[in-house]
Amino acid sequence: MAKRQGKVYLGYEEEIIGEKNQVLLTYKMNKIGGIPNWPPLDNLNYSSKCPLCGLYRMLIVQCYAPLENSVYHRTLYVFACISPNCWNLSEGWECVRSQIQESSGTKQDNIIVTQSAANLAWCNAADEWDENDNGDSMNGNVMNVDNEPANNGMRNSDDDESNSYELETVEQALGNLQVFDAHNANMSPQGAVGSNSGPEAAAELEGGDEPGLVIVETPTATMSDIEALLHQTAELPVELRNKLMRAPMQFIPKYIYVEEEYKNSCLNDDRVTELLNKYKNENELDLGGFAERGAGAGAGGGDEEAYEEAAPLHGDKLFHAFITRLKNNPGQILRYTRDEAPILGAPLANNSAIPESPSVPNVCSRCGSRLICELQLVPEFADTLKISLNDILLSHLHFLSVLVFTCSQSCWQPMDTVVNEIVVFQPEIV
Length: 430
Hints:
By secondary structure, the protein is of the alpha+beta class. It has helices at 19-22, 84-87, 102-109, 115-120, 134-139, 157-175, 226-230, 238-246, 265-283, 287-298, 317-327; strands spanning 9-16, 31-32, 58-64, 72-80, 93-101, 202-205, 212-215, 254-260, 332-336, 371-377, 401-407, 419-426.
């Protein structure tokens, strides 16, 4: 019996989180960048300094990941050091998990509506705009700013005179307005009128029934120095490095949209079988003979060769399968699952004997339970990381995959505030 496929949730980049909405974010939000939104736990102290270079790490992604039949709210925070010497190393990355019981979290999430906020909530039981507001005036909600008695609908004569004078002025100005044809400017009393803007370069086309002009546009210079990008030094800009030495910084925060991965392989198999049976019935063919001859050819008992799927031109079948799976749902930036294995674009070693390939972790160092790959960042995630500081371009922020391995039992002690998980970084294949 085939194993039942588990659910895989995909994340997609959404709009930037504005400053007004940032104050409303909680630990239950999935987002890119920004600052971490920690749960309201006592004595929660976390230092994001990189152990390799001493710079503060930056939040890459915050993922709210509660478990079924659990009393805990659960959030994953992934940090990384953006120094070029640390970015490509797993040690430059870190993932911490934080949990809080649902009961205590509910108390913290209660919103206290102040008197001033209650006065603003007028939409539910507000009067119509054309209704009398005398009742509100009695309780003090409406105040007459000018402290003048109402004129009972009588118009002020001074206002009428002022409005009439303004109307006459506008009519007089419109009466003096004259419009001349730009091509017959010499026929106007004032002669030709010069343009405020400078002349544009133009070329006249000779021949044809109608004259035409071709505007010669000034070529736009490229905004990126390609040669500088190829020879970029392995150092951060001085201004950015100094800021990261003093305090943490943040990428531009963005929302993440989540949906379940669409898998069409089963549907395709059913459709193929349906068409095959239809073709067999219409043509009265015995496809079993073809299957037997194919099996015999595969065993070397026939002249025909068994069909083999052609390998990609570059020869890397694993990377080809990785890219094909991502293209089935274009635009995805992360993958979340606790049931399925990650999709790999490069192999992982079973131990650390191969320095070029990171090793696969097996068991939790805290409780000894099995580790699972719960979160995977795919290559398109790197394109979402932007720093608003003078539009600094950091071309080294790319990767093949970032794999986050967590405890399958999500072990947690009452005195815990954060628990470190394991991050495996896979560099981009060149």
